[in-house]
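SEVERITY: medium
COMPONENT: batch folding queue
REPORTER: lab tech (J.R.)

DESCRIPTION
The queue accepted two submissions in a row. Attaching both inputs and their returned structure tokens so the on-call engineer can compare them side by side.

ATTACHMENT 1
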Amino acid sequence: MAPEPCLNDLPPSAKLVYTVLEYDAPLTQKALVEETNLSARTVRYALDRLDECNYITEDVYLRDARQSLYRLNTTAEEQTGESTPEPA
């Protein structure tokens, strides 16, 4: 198994999805597509890459069990040295 790539090694689409989740999590894949203006396939690929790096967690979306909610892992913030902004 290859070593996990860090955030700097991820493609720009994954970095964009990471940034959107940093400010607006939790979001469904559909909401991420709308927020990022990326194609569904690109968002899916970005989520897969972020998941491989253990940067995100996937939860069941209770309003529609066919979808998942994605949010940043708390350990992802520790790995990058960043923290999510707190609302004013």
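ATTACHMENT 2
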Amino acid sequence: MASLEHEEGKILRLQLELNQVKSEIDRKIAEKDEEIDQLKRNHLRIVESMQSTLDAEIRSRNEALRLKKKMEGDLNEIEIQLSHANRVAAEAQKNLRNTQGVLKDTQIHLDDALRTQEDLKEQVAMVERRANLLQAEIEELRAALEQTESSSIPRTPA
């Protein structure tokens, strides 16, 4: 019977050891489960942070694309305005050249008219001098005529 008790003692010791090993394994499993849960939480926070960063980058990219399209539209509008302004400036330069040509022609005509006016003034002055000379000559001839008439008419005694 001693051997049976001895065997039962061995079994009890083995069961006790087995229970201790089982407890140790359960404790280690619980620690590992806690580590895994902590890793899951950490990774979840990292994923959420990355998702938030990705969302912000997507919003920034969409805003950049919107601004790019707006700027391209603004640039297109400015190019159209510049083209129009260039056409207006070219037309204004053409009109200026035409006006300068007309002004030059008008100045030439004015200069010609002024020269003609000066020539006419000189001619008028010459005609007036000649008329004055002729008038003086007429006066002299009248005086001479009167003198001749008075000397040729016999005087009758009164």
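NOTES FROM REPORTER
Helices lie at 2-152.
No errors were logged for either attachment.
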